[in-house]
């Protein structure tokens, strides 16, 4: 099939994003505007930007590939995140916005001491590199089915697009593009790709095995594996630097709560769309050697115009997550490491994290391992200390407990992930080790 039209549509879309970044750069008048869009975001834009940020490579390419290879229990990648956002909205979003701070480490420092703030900042920047690398790889898989070019070159082009428009416009560029991308995602994935592929696969629906359709667990994903997937995705959606930067950009606490809950609902809707596409791909294109190509393969074999729109929708998914990760990392480098609200330092951080993510994408080259690295270390290291911090009067957690929780949870989960025969359970082990210091070191900070 001639993919020229598809390629033109995709590159036109990428050019538009760069243009939006240039326009947004004219709006930014201060560091507050660059980091937090002047705390002016209403509930509709907030819902769109949180949804666009959290429906990333893990929720689409990884979840779709796992559903293709292992069946419906892989939906826990998406269900965990959606439920996490809803819980965040009902119980914590207003607390996050009420702090009036700038970053997640900033919040950690307000709960505990500067050691916890710096430790949180370093951990987040490291995991942001892995998160952006995941998104670069997911975007590369999407474009590789349409563009006949060297894969490393594709990854580099994607990285440059991610970096440039985020550096230009900051939070304004991120939110403006996320608002557009939200609707492109909805239309391309939920209203075009899922129905078209389902109708094409419908006559052969009986080809799906009981293993593929079994839920909540099956022979491929048992109860412990499902639990590990759930907590690996649930916790970073309750406590997440990119999500918190959106909540801190909202105009008030009520807006923050509403935006988080609605984003969680939309994420669950996207989960249904991804499941339909993945199972349809299993019927139409069985036996793919790389399951993460299942969704791009199914989409590219539609008409060039339709596939161009849908692939732009999937690129929207990746870009809208990557820009938030890059901006969050850049802001943290400026505010929490250098302790200056400086746009240029943040832009340097965006460049540093983007290039680091590109190098990781080239040399690691395994999208599932990249996902596990990012989500496992962050979830095990930082989520429990922050949750205990929000309820410090009841938990009586100390700065010492929070620091050792961060260190133990993150390091043990990393070691377990790479040196244990049961690496899939690393996040559960890490959370247990993260919990111990929080329970042991309680009382009043000295």
Description:
The structure is a single chain. The protein is mostly helical. The protein has one domain: Sodium/glucose cotransporter (Up-down Bundle). Helix content is 80%, strand content 0%. It has helices at 4-27, 31-36, 43-54, 58-70, 76-91, 93-99, 104-111, 114-144, 151-201, 210-213, 223-238, 241-249, 253-284, 294-300, 304-337, 343-364, 367-390, 392-395, 399-419, 426-440. Helix 8 (114-144) crosses helix 16. The radius of gyration is 21 Å and the shape is globular. The termini are far apart. 61% of the residues are buried.
Q: What descriptors fit this protein?
A:
446 residues; Sodium/glucose cotransporter; mainly alpha
Give a short synopsis of this structure:
By secondary structure, this protein is an all-alpha fold.
